[in-house]
Amino acid sequence: MSDTGKPVGPIPTGYETRDGELAVDGQTTSQLVERAGRTPLFVYSSAMMSRRVADLRAAMPERLKINYAIKANSFAPVLKHMAGLVDGLDIASGGELDMVRAAGIDCARVSFAGPGKRDSELGNAIRHGATLNLESEGEAERALAIAEQLGTTPRLAIRVNPDFELKGSGMKMGGGAKPFGVDAERVPALARRIVDAGAEWRGLHIFTGSQALDADAVIDAQANVLDLAQRIVEKAGVSLPKLNMGGGLGIPYFPGDTPIDAQRIGAALDERFAARSDTMADTDFFIELGRYLVGEAGVYLTRIVDRKISHGETYLITDGGLHHQLAASGNFGTVVRRNYPVAIATRFDEEKAEIANVVGCLCTPLDRLADKAHLPPAEVGDIVAVFCAGAYGASASPSAFLGQGPAAEIMV
Ligand SMILES: *Cc1c(COP(=O)(O)O)cnc(C)c1O
Q1: Residue in 66, 71, 93, 159 to alter for ligand 1 test, most ligand atoms within 8 A of Cβ
Q2: Which of 60, 62, 198, 277 has the highest local Cβ count within 10 Å?
Q3: What are the positions of the active site (predicted)?
Q4: If you measure from the C-alpha of residue 288 to the centroid of ligand 1, how many angstroms do you get, rounded to a whole number?
Q5: How far is it, in rounded angstroms, from Cα 412 to Cα 393?
Q6: 3-state class of 194 per DSSP?
Q7: Atom 13, ligand 1: which residue's CA is nearest?
Q8: Residues 182 and 136: beta-carbon distance below 8 Å
Q9: 291 CB less than 6 Å from ligand 1?
Q10: Residue 9 has what DSSP assignment?
């Protein structure tokens, strides 16, 4: 057996050991699995989400409002819980609009970004009073025409494709040619068009990137966003009722990752707000976050169904896999595969005395949950925990692949 293992990512704070097992909010792994009735299983902690939002609010200026980007996790109980904690919700499809409505959330709190909005999606959003973050001049004209047909005043904002991006961002969504937003230099003309057409002008949306762990990168991006917004509204001669400044706060997934310093970001923003010009005196400022709010509050539990040795390496084969946890498998926007935080949930306090590969049950070599991880020796029937599963797990994985079906989900 190879004696050099590979490190795993840091287990988020807030998880405990109880009766030798991983526990979430006082409930052991065995109790959680019994409650759900099966594995694989996503467990989301409402207390951890509440704590995260409260800590973030304490770190940020009071004036800053917080939106939840529901694509991170749209499980109905999570969506309802989050809606009670945040100021607004960001959606990116007509399907997400349906989810928000089914959860009983007022669409006046909802903004809808995303390229390729169909006429039916624009119509539904306008009818229910959601704000459209327009991604192009063409989409703006379609929205205005649909609103006229409906006899409704649409709520319209413009998503700007900024000429800069969030440095060190996991996913680049600004800077240069992009399918997202309207190029910054064309935004003033479009803003005038919207105001002159008699729509309810809702301001600007400037998203610069995701998954940053460096507070300075976020501070720089926010300063650039504020400057760009100011230049645009001054040039257009329009007000700025709302500025969605994007998000970008990331979470530690991999060995060596450290949490982002939200206090520093809040302090810098406080200074920027204090120095703001009159143009933005009445502006509502928002940040929009997905993974930072819910990612660490979720854990994925999957049962070991086989244990085997191949060429001297130990394989723990589980009933889960990339069809639920695509990102943990290393196949969701990563170049080099690194290990997410993993543990043997049913032996959470035992010594990590062996090196094992944890794989899923799909018949593809892509289906890896941990490579050469130091773990307590585990047997068939034990349960593996993969952390950082609260965002882009169930909502971003190909659950139809190979017919294994979706995982169970519970919120505690
Ligand atoms: C995906 C997305 C988010 C959320 O990103 P996180 O990294 O989960 O915080 C926010 N805004 C927009 C426009 C997005 O596309």
Answers
A1: 71
A2: 60
A3: 363
A4: 7
A5: 17
A6: helix
A7: 207
A8: yes
A9: yes
A10: P
Three-state DSSP state, 385: strand
Judged by DSSP in three states, 19 sits in coil
Give Cβ neighbours of residue 170 (< 8 Å, ≥ 6 apart). 209, 210, 211, 212, 250, 333
140-191 confidence digits (pLDDT tens): 999 999 999 999 999 999 999 998 889 876 655 556 899 999 999 999 999 9
Ligand 1 and 247: CB distance under 6 A: yes
Cβ–Cβ < 8 Å for 230, 277: yes
Q: Whose CA is closest to atom 14 on ligand 1?
A: 69
Q: 211 alpha carbon to ligand 1 midpoint, in Å?
A: 9
Of the candidates 409, 345, 339, the one whose C-alpha atom is nearest the C-alpha of residue 373 is 339
Q: How far is CA 132 from the centre of its chain?
A: 20
pTM over 0.85: yes
d(Cα 167, Cα 305) in Å, to the nearest integer? 42
Other residues' Cβ atoms within 10 Å of the Cβ of residue 84: 12
CA distance 158 to 140: 9
Residues 226, 104: Cα–Cα separation, whole Å: 33
Known catalytic residues are 363
Query: Is 292 near ligand 1, meaning CB less than 6 Å away?
Result: yes
| Domains defined along the chain, listed by start | 16-45+296-411 (2.40.37.10), 74-289 (3.20.20.10)
Report whether residue 393 contacts ligand 1, using a CB cutoff of 6 Å: no
| Residue 257, CA atoms < 13 Å, CB-side half-sphere | 25
Q: Is the CB of 288 under 6 A from ligand 1?
A: yes
Identify the pLDDT of residue 1.
45
Q: How far is the CA of 111 from the centre of ligand 1 (A)?
A: 13
Atom of ligand 1 nearest to the CA of 289: 9
Question: Would the CB of 174 count as within 6 Å of ligand 1?
Answer: no
Give 79-113 as a DSSP string. HHHHHHHSSEEEE-SHHHHHHHHHTT--GGGEEE-
Q: Which atom of ligand 1 is nearest to the CA of 173?
A: 15
Give me the amino acid identity at 247: G
3-state secondary structure of 16: strand
- C-alpha of residue 173 to centroid of ligand 1, in Å: 10
Q: Which pLDDT tens digit goes with each residue over 26-78?
A: 999 999 999 999 999 999 999 999 999 999 999 999 999 999 999 999 999 99
